[in-house]
């Protein structure tokens, strides 16, 4: 039985280069790579060699015969993308065997046609680590990495949910990179506070900014200053032991929590808040958070989307992981799915809607109904956080109707839902860096393929990668191709001598 890519896939494409028969798609040079929710193995051409299993940093690839019951749905998800064994009968990545290479190409960089280069990287999250890995392939590069926190790896450590142990295992790969003798990591050094960007530029041949998108997108409604309202990020930081949230406290005694926004972070939060705390004991969850979760009074977490189920921001692998792995008591109102049809060219969307339909038909035993439940609600835009004496009492929503093209239009109907805790999970936004240009609107450092630009003018020797380069989207592995692009731009500039800082000029 062929190998199967499962939930933990973070899209770094390592498996693509390991596969001898080129049966994992989309590859980084194929359309759809940037938007794919995971990579997929073509079951008809996989020769079961296992090379991809070793290459995968997060253990996402499983031989078909070893799939656990909660992973079996992924066999169909992989196959559906190729039409093979698919109920959908579509071929997403038609494979011309004649064009197949006997071995997948592995790009190896030639020597750098320039003298020794000392490069600064700001940040130590996934984009920084992948940039370092790419740069260290060149023998005459040394790197100093500056990280403001006392522990490295950014959101791979402080964002990824504690029960996503396979995904968190990517930190082993980062550990390997961090051990490289030409990489020095300075922890507890914040650029902008402890040294300026100009000082950094003066000391290095090039600077890569990989500082991530540090703030939450504001919700923009009244009541967000009330006790009991928080950004989901702070709850994530609290349960992941992020030093910035060491003093955070959450009152989990109320029966209902509302999560506004329905991306993967919202699913993480809903899953952790409804999980049996005993099952979290063996994870890296902060012990204080675990103690609070043991005493929780939560009966229901409502995850609310402004638009419809088709536009839901969570990915299919995460939905499958939630539904099949933890097997929570989870509700979707069948009325929300009436008349909703998937894009016929979008297999992932079709499967997502099919799974939501399946959930909407589920019935539960009395025992299952006694557990904390997750409820998906769609077509509800927050109008106001309701408060009593400065404390959250719920959310007032304006109901939307969703057009076929996904546009949301208010119906005029108002719906109040009571809650003791309201978490906003509507996305992230980068923060401006003194000394570098910044696009307030999109929250990124303006750049051309990773070269920082001020207007149309390149800022010599300064590059950017990760969330602060492209915005807060994609997976951990997406940062690998992103960083490779920025490093390729730097290399081109160094070799044509257009990217050196004033230090050596
Ligand atoms: C809650 C959450 C859960 C997620 N879960 C998953 C998941 O399960 N699977 C998945 O594939 N992806 C997940 N992601 C996405 C993934 O974490 C991101 O794609 C990735 O972390 C972005 O990498 P980055 O390096 O750009 O930013 P970050 O990971 O944010 O790293 C930025 C680093 O720069 C440091 N820094 C910032 N400013 C400075 C400064 N001035 N000086 C020095 N250091 C600085 C920060 O401290 C941080 O360590 C999740 C994201 C979030 C928010
Ligand atoms: S098992 Fe071998 S042939 Fe199959 S996807 Fe993995 S590397 Fe490719
Ligand atoms: S995480 Fe990377 S190596 Fe593993 S399956 Fe996904 S793309 Fe392939």
Automatic annotation (TrEMBL):
Reaction it catalyzes: 2 reduced [2Fe-2S]-[ferredoxin] + NADP(+) + H(+) = 2 oxidized [2Fe-2S]-[ferredoxin] + NADPH
InterPro entries from the UniProt entry: 4Fe4S_Fe-S-bd, 4Fe4S_Fe_S_CS, FAD/NAD-bd_sf, FAD/NAD-binding_dom, Ferredox_Rdtase
Cofactor: FAD
EC number: 1.18.1.2
Residue span, 4Fe-4S ferredoxin-type domain: 1-29, 37-66
Keyword set, alphabetical order: FAD, Flavoprotein, Iron, Iron-sulfur, Metal-binding, NADP, Oxidoreductase
Pfam annotation, one family: Pyr_redox_2
SUPFAM superfamilies listed in its UniProt record: 4Fe-4S ferredoxins (SSF54862), Nucleotide-binding domain (SSF51971)
Protein name: ferredoxin--NADP(+) reductase
Organism, as annotated: Gordonia defluvii
């Amino acid at each position: 039985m062929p190998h199967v890519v499962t939930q933990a896939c973070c899209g770094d494409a390592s498996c693509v280069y390991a596969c001898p028969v080129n049966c994992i798609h989309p590859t980084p040079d194929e359309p759809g790579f940037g938007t794919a929710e995971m990579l997929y193995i073509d079951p008809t051409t996989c020769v079961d060699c296992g090379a991809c299993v070793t290459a995968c940093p997060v253990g996402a690839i499983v031989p078909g015969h070893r799939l656990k019951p909660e992973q079996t749905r992924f066999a169909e998800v992989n196959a559906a993308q190729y039409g093979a064994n698919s109920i959908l009968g579509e071929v997403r990545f038609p494979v011309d065997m004649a064009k197949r290479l006997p071995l997948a190409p592995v790009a190896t960089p030639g020597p750098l046609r320039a003298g020794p280069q000392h490069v600064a990287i700001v940040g130590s999250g996934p984009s920084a680590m992948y940039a370092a890995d790419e740069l260290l392939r060149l023998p005459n590069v040394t790197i100093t990495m500056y990280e403001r926190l006392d522990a490295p790896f950014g959101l791979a450590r402080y964002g990824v949910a504690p029960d996503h142990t396979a995904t968190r295992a990517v930190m082993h790969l980062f550990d390997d990179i961090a051990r490289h003798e030409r990489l020095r990591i300075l922890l507890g050094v914040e650029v902008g506070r402890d040294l300026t960007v100009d000082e950094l530029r003066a000391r290095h041949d090039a600077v890569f900014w990989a500082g991530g998108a540090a703030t939450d997108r504001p919700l923009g409604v009244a009541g967000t200053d009330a006790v009991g309202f928080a950004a989901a990020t702070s709850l994530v930081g609290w349960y992941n032991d992020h030093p910035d949230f060491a003093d955070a406290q959450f009152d989990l005694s109320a029966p209902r929590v509302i999560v506004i926004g329905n991306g993967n972070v919202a699913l993480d939060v809903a899953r952790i808040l409804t999980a049996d705390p005993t099952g979290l004991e063996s994870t890296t969850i902060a012990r204080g958070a675990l103690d609070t979760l043991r005493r929780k009074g939560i009966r229901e977490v409502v995850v609310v989307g402004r638009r419809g189920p088709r536009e839901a921001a969570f990915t299919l692998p995460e939905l499958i992981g939630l539904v099949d792995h933890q097997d929570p008591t989870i509700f979707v109102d069948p009325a929300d799915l009436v008349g909703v049809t998937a894009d016929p060219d979008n297999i992932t969307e079709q499967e997502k809607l099919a799974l939501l339909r399946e959930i909407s038909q589920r019935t539960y035993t009395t025992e299952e109904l006694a557990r904390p439940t997750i409820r998906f609600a769609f077509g509800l835009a927050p109008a106001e956080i309701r408060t009593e004496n400065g404390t959250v009492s719920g959310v007032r929503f304006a109901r939307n109707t969703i057009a076929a093209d996904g546009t949301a239009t208010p119906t005029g109907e108002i719906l109040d839902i009571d809650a003791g805790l309201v978490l906003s999970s509507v996305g992230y936004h980068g923060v401006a860096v003194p000394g570098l240009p910044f696009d307030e609107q999109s929250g990124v450092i303006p750049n051309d393929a990773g070269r920082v630009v001020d207007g149309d003018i390149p800022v010599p020797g300064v590059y950017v990668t990760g969330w602060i380069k492209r915005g807060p989207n994609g997976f951990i592995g997406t940062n690998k191709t992103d960083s490779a692009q920025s490093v390729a731009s730097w290399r081109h500039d160094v070799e044509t001598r257009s990217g050196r800082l004033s230090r050596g000029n």
